[in-house]
Design goal:
binds pyridoxal-5'-phosphate; single chain; 18 helices; 41% helix; alpha/beta; four-stranded parallel sheet; Rossmann fold; 457 residues; seven-stranded mixed sheet
């Protein structure tokens, strides 16, 4: 017999504020540096890229930041999102552990990313911006921003990593359906793109290159700004709505998590579920285990260096202190495109350094296996990125079984995999390989890290 246990919040219980972990950090974040002067940047330095409200959130240390009514109205289309008790998965694993998952695949884009796309588009709109540029890998962020752009009447120009552009035409079709323009990156629209194409006309692209192109275009026109789907403080902030809802839903379930798990690409969905719980702990509350799960082929948190680095390949962005594999590092192609980024959110990197969270890395075949186990028990086919969180949760549940412990696990299921079924087909056909990154290339990328003044680093 199968069982579905779902915890649904009333709309009136939706969080009114985003939670800002910066307010509770025991040690403040390292400053962000100007790429030219290598001195801490000011709000004015960021003004060509982001609207003022977003810049203020980026540097804020206020604990709670109010969610504007207009944003809340739109988020309600799919929020509050459900929390499920994975009873069937528990049975399939024969574990005494209790497993819960917070499901973000219910948004129009099918992932957590609209949680930040909507407020970012809103703040741009009210400050008079007409056009947004952005990058996307597999296409989830491009889709989310395109949807937000359609709602607020903003033009959206997406640079999609070439290899994904060719392999995943349906995400592009969704972006175009929402009215956005999507080109393959590297493109001929920008100097950064043309420079790379001149050297290699068949370059497969990377997120770092696509970011360079989007930034380059944004700074050229006053009516255009740039939007990023992960990594930055304000993006993590916008995602904390998921963790706050989870706190309420766990209380509804009469339970309390011992372990919190999320997958990490740039760190935003992980931050979303983890930060509200971590904040409680930092204010004197209960200590829980918090685990970030990343791909073994692009292991910034477990194998990267904690250092100042650029966010993009052409070195147009400010420098942030983060776990990085080097901005010129090109990760091997694997299916979780949303996790193929050389860096990690500065805030997630910082709490890893402080020993407040754990990190593990798994290869993609093990993650797809976990994804299939999950789908057969719970019915939802996870996005390739999300299978990493599923794998992390299953590993903990199996450890509980071995140790005879009934711990409570909650993880964030960041999205569904309906646009990634070719990856599942490859998995079933035995065509997926676990590629290791090239140690030599990593060494080279790390040796090229920018050198910053001693008084700052
Ligand atoms: C983009 C994406 C991720 C990775 O991004 P984070 O910023 O680390 O959350 C994970 N899962 C899904 C479904 C995504 O679309």
């Amino acid at each position: 017999m199968s069982e579905q246990i779902k915890y649904v919040l009333d709309e009136s219980a939706m969080p009114k504020d985003w939670y800002n972990l910066a307010a509770d950090l025991p040690v403040p974040l390292a400053p962000v540096l100007h790429p030219g002067t290598l001195q801490p940047i000011t709000g004015a330095d960021l003004a060509p890229l982001f609207p003022m409200a977003v810049i203020q959130q980026e540097v804020s240390t206020e604990r709670y930041i109010e969610i504007p009514d207009e944003v809340n109205q739109i988020l309600r289309q799919w929020r509050p999102s459900p929390l499920f008790r994975a009873r069937n998965l528990e049975k399939a694993l024969d574990t005494p552990a209790k497993i819960y998952y917070k499901y973000e695949g219910v948004s129009p884009a099918g992932s957590h990313k609209p949680n930040t796309a909507i407020p970012q588009a809103f703040y741009n709109k009210i400050e008079g911006v007409k056009r947004l540029t952005t990058e996307t890998g597999a296409g989830q962020w491009g889709t989310s921003l395109s949807y937000a752009g359609a709602l607020f009447g903003l033009e959206v120009q997406v640079f999609q990593v070439r290899i994904s552009y060719d392999q995943k035409p349906y995400r592009r079709a969704v972006m175009e359906t929402y009215g956005a323009t999507c080109v393959a990156s590297p493109s001929t629209l920008t100097e950064s793109g043309r420079a790379i194409l001149a050297k290699n006309p068949n370059h497969p692209g990377s997120l770092g290159i696509a970011i360079s192109e989007a930034v380059e275009l944004a700074v050229q026109r006053d009516d255009t700004k740039y939007a990023l789907g992960s990594v930055l403080n304000h993006v993590l902030l916008h995602q904390t709505i998921t963790g706050q809802e989870t706190q309420l839903q766990m209380a509804m379930a009469g339970d309390d998590p011992d372990i919190i798990i999320g997958c990490t690409g740039g760190g935003s969905n992980f931050a979303g579920i983890a930060f509200p719980f971590l904040g409680e702990q930092l204010r004197g509350g209960r200590k829980r285990r918090i685990i970030a799960v990343e791909p073994a082929s692009c292991p910034s948190l477990t194998k990267g260096q904690y250092a100042y680095d650029f966010g993009d390949t052409a070195h147009l962005t400010p420098l942030t202190k983060m776990h990085t594999l080097g901005s010129t590092f090109t990760p091997p192609g694997f299916h979780a495109g949303g996790l193929r980024y050389h860096g990690m959110a500065p805030m997630v990197s910082h709490i890893k350094e402080l020993g407040l969270i754990e990190a593990v890395a798994y290869h993609q075949t093990a993650c797809f296996e976990a994804g299939v186990t999950f789908a057969r028990a719970e019915g939802i086919v996870p996005a390739p990125e999300s299978t990493h969180a599923v794998k992390g949760a299953i590993e903990e549940a199996l450890r509980c079984k071995q140790e005879g412990k009934s711990e409570t696990i909650v993880f964030l299921l960041s999205g569904h995999g309906h646009f990634d079924m070719a990856a599942y087909s490859d998995y079933f056909a035995g065509k997926l390989v676990d590629q290791s990154y090239d140690e030599k290339e990593l060494g080279m990328a790390l040796s090229g890290l920018p050198v910053v003044p001693d008084n700052i680093a």
